Amino acid sequence: MKKNLYPTIAMALPAVVTLMSCAEKKEKPEHYNIVYIMTDDHTAQMMSCYDNRYVETPNLDRIAQDGVKFVNSFVANSLSGPSRACMFTGKHSHKNGFTHNEHGIFDGSQQTMPKLLQQAGYQTAIIGKWHLVSEPTGFDYWNILPGQGDYYNPDFIRMDGTTVREHGYVTNIVTDKSIDWMENKRDKSKPFILFIHHKACHRNWLPEMKYLNEYEDKTFPLPENFYDDYAGRKAAAAQEMEIGNNNHMDLVYDNKIYSEGDQTRLTSTYLSMINRMDSADRVRYDSLYQAITADFKQKNPKGKDLAEYKYQRYMRDYSKVLKSLDDNVGRVLDYLEESGLSKNTLVVYTSDQGFYMGEHGWFDKRFMYEESMSTPLVMKLPEGLEARGEITEMVQNIDYAPTFLELAGVEVPEDIQGVSLLPLLKGEHPKDWRKSLYYHFYEYPAEHAVKRHYGIRTERYKLIHFYRDIDEWELYDLQTDPMEMHNIYGQPGTEQITQDLMKQLDDLQVQYDDPIREQFPLSVQ
Predict the structure, then answer these.
(1) What is the pTM of this model?
(2) Half-sphere exposure of 440 (CA within 13 A, CB side)
């Protein structure tokens, strides 16, 4: 029997669940179920229990109200496929082999958390977005979207290999299938883990028809650093994800500002998406966006006016997609309560990473900066887990696998790099919990042109190295500069903290066995 340890710099040896006393068994369910709901590109700024400036998300907030909200939750690689691979394996990208979306194929033969749960008698299912290219393994049931999936009348790939086009809006359909599996398709004598993976809120933010006109009368506040000039940050200046730049955020594909005969490099791709709509819905859809196009052409905005016009369009369409998502999370919560499953089911809600909602003038993710490295994480806790309110300890998506395994009473393999969050869910606050996190982004050259980089985040500081195509270091004091606008690397007075962070970063690369350390050795004294 091993003791669960929590090192100051990252993970510890995994924990094995201790045997419960007879008294404890009377107070706790014999088995816990797990419902893991994950969205795509949903960010904490757009979730009202974290930030109420923009939208209200009452059903997502219900999860936090009945459980816990992690306020320092992060990913190891801010990109869809790699983030999912980290979650399923409990390992950083260089260990699970899926480092980026462009050419990656997830090795389904490797050890994964669903396989370990399946071997322990759990029923395992995934419905919705998979985005790991290879066929899902370790699941008793799967029904997945091909690639990114479509918002309207989407295709689903079944376990028998057939592809079926379903009628309706993708967020509703994923929820329908998830509830149907829990109610009608699973073996109710066994505990289960269900992964509900939504396409929402992924680009290009196509709304459900009932919310087509939602938020059209709302003006969203502009982020304070919307007009960032990227001074002192060469990698930030080189990206291609600025809202105000028509070559980055496309007027047709992203903002739906087009009329018959307009041509851009993305028109055919965009039209292939909306051509899936039912004819009556298409008429309504075109009516709205033709009116928006006429308004845009009449105003003919330029410069800052154009950037701010596009920002409002982006925020409105994103919020519409999010509203349907919130409704469907509520449907799942209602089902669990009405079916009696709620008392012994852990409900987890998170996203595959954060997203920029105009901060630094951007959309998308990828950078190690706070808005994309951080992700919302709330959990509705079953009986026997007593934590409530905010959890401030730093956690990462590699921690989900050991958490679910320990909750299920399954021994956590030695090679899993994450740390179980179960002590935190019990209301404990280990004094030796990790004090730093490791991050590594690989996908360059690729869309949005974010350079490769790795780095360390501590409770106060962040040190980032952009490498190979560029050799630049960035250092931020998150206490005095939470928006990460002022790179203080190399400035007088930062020598000691830089050296300390270099040493901690080197320790993390050793601990996680990242081969990048051999290619770009750090200056550690």
Answers:
(1) 0.93
(2) 23
